[in-house]
Specification:
7-stranded mixed β-sheet; 4-stranded antiparallel β-sheet
Length: about 500
Amino acid sequence: MENTAFSLKPSQFSDHGRKRFLCLLTHDDWKSNYIVATKTGDTFSQHAYRSDVLRDLDLCGAVDTFVTHNGFNGAKRDSNRTRQINSLFFDIDIHNDDADLVAVKQQVKSALFNVIDNAVLPTPTMIVDSGRGFHLYYLFARSVPYRKRSPEGGSVVCEKALWRIKQIEHRIDGVLDKICASIREAGNDRAVHDLARIARIPGTYNTSSHSYAELIYANDEAMYNFEMLESALPSVDTSITAPNKVVHVIDFERISIRRLKELEQLRDYRDHGQGEPCTNNTRNNMVFVYMNAATQVYGIDKAFELAKAFNRGFAVPLPEMELKATRDNLERKGTYRIKLDTIITKFLKITQLESDHLGLFKSKRTLDRELAKQKTREKRAKRDRDILELVSEGMTYDQVAKRMGVSRRTVASVVKRNNGARTYARRTLRRHIKIQFSRTKELLDAIKTTKTPQEASEEYCESGGFSKVQNFGNHTLGVRYLSGYENASSGLEFSLGLDPPLAT
């Protein structure tokens, strides 16, 4: 779908667009359930409604009320219970309480206009002013099934569809990240892509911003399928100029998952290992960093459960009320993009000893460099094994060097570093030499009678004394070295590249 001239106008709906919002959201409903959640204090109450009931709910005066933008089986808000995927959802959040909210929102709105007008982003189906930011919806013309029938019976998750959704989300996130790059108080929340995510309903009151959420744009014709979105979006690495600043797209999800594992290592080292036990303050900071990172990947609900499990791993766990306070903070202000140096020095106070011992919280550049070094070590180790194997089989250094594409000096160096391989090679060759020395003696005895060397060799091969070609170092014994028993032995050693020759 091509972009047309785009502008946001104040909603003309008396209910701030609630009815319009819910009708569009459920336009391709399959008799699924939609979960409405209302927050009162620190608790959520949740109820499931069919689309026809949902559209007619009396939400006048409702406070902090949210709804899932996908349909579910049953009344539980769980991604695995998703029945139909109605839309792609994005959240630009104003996370600084001290910011001029009106001015920052206007700045974000102008940046959004710019990329949509210039066809950098496809036109959203709906945009909602949530009170502290903007929600963007890209609705599917036909909802995407979460599961499909399996040939073996039952059903399986539509992995291919989920993969395509993830790719599209990643590309749109890349654009939104760059839109917000120059707006310090705003950020694109990448943690909102779980299928069970809830979002504010237009016409309900936001106690954080002291304003009503409002549907500020809706377009019935902006309905999409995968192909339309994929063709309308730039590649992830496309450079988009934001006012005063351009940033690169970073895979925050991968970074956050790595950070969770590193925090678990640090906790165990301090409380159950050789480190200094965690104080109450460091436990608080570790839980905050952990829940913040987990929320960016899994959403606030699962992140809270993971944080509780993480907290139980301390020698002295924090009271659960402190974890709830951290959750409330993240729900109210959104997740934080915390610099690595700040995590190390301010939040966790990681010592040099801990860093050296555990190798924690290294920069992406350092990790990439270490990965490259590891791959080089593995490649070199395989090369060395191949060299030692060829030497053990009796090839000369020159032959090995030619086969492996390395210098003779490299072969010699590898063998020298692996005395065991050299010893094995010498023992193996000594055994072969003794066998071949005995066979060569028999051959020479035959030659000393009436046979020519060639006749004796051919006859001896036919009789089974030699295989058709008894080849060591590309020399056939008994044909080349016929000047005596001693020369036969030393000649074999020479052909094998043994220096000095083995004792007979």
